[in-house]
Write a structure and sequence with these properties.
Length: 235
């Protein structure tokens, strides 16, 4: 059994998608980051970095309980554990390259683009432009990679595509003000729609729907989400 610690945001969504695609048994455990639950001692024992997603696999190697945090690490762990969505052995180097490209580039720059366009105070036009343009540059790199191919790495659906799906789902926020945010990237849009049309994607969107998360963006929420802005460690 897998205990899946999540909040309904892009990185946990990738893991939800894998769990549904692979048909793994899991228990969703909500971590309301707007309330600061990611900073509790109990959750820090699961992820010392205080971020979601994280999992505890009660049937890890040698049937021992193991913890894994960071969405990319979780995807690799689960793909290796199940033998699914890793592509062919020949694809593996390219798969890892693109997976880490998303983890270190597309994801973080998309997240910062959203932050500076929606959460940061006025007067930070340079940062807003910087992160949005870099997110768009990463879109274009993937757009070029997808020319003439169905999926990101090789010709099989892999964890790289799942990882991209998690953030492309928020393209309207990354590219604030665009009616069709992926229109300029037709190959990328096709990839997103291909993954999003899979039955597992619909199920992934329903993961944790029974839980109620805080929606109010008040001072307490901002301190919970961005403790370093207040000189706090969030511990």
């Amino acid at each position: 059994m897998i205990r899946f610690y999540f909040h309904p945001t892009p990185n946990p969504a990738k893991v939800s998608l894998f769990l549904e695609e692979a048909g793994l048994s899991f228990v969703p455990i909500p971590i309301d980051t707007s309330k600061g639950e990611q900073h509790t001692a109990a959750f820090r024992a699961v992820n010392p970095n205080g971020k979601v997603p994280a999992i505890i696999d009660t049937e890890g190697p040698d049937d021992e309980e193991v913890r894994i945090f960071d969405s990319t690490a979780i995807l690799i762990y689960l793909a290796e554990k199940t033998g699914q969505f890793l592509g062919t052995p020949r694809d593996r180097p390219e798969l890892l390259s693109w997976l880490l490209f998303i983890a270190s580039g597309l994801g973080p720059f998309s997240g910062q683009a959203v932050h500076f366009q929606y959460a940061a105070p006025n007067g930070l036009d340079y940062a807003r432009n910087r992160y949005r343009r870099e997110a768009e540059r990463h879109y274009q790199v993937l757009e070029s990679q997808l020319a003439g191919r169905t999926f990101i790495a090789g010709e099989r659906y892999t964890i790289a595509d799942m990882s991209a799906w998690g953030w492309l789902d928020r393209a309207s926020r990354v590219r604030k003000g665009e009616a069709d945010p992926l229109a300029e990237y037709p190959n990328l849009k096709r990839l997103f729609e291909t993954v999003d049309a899979r039955p597992a994607a619909a199920r992934a969107r329903q993961v944790g729907q029974e839980f109620v998360f805080k929606k109010v963006n008040d001072e307490a929420t901002r301190r919970a989400l961005f403790p370093s802005n207040y000189g706090e460690e969030g511990g």
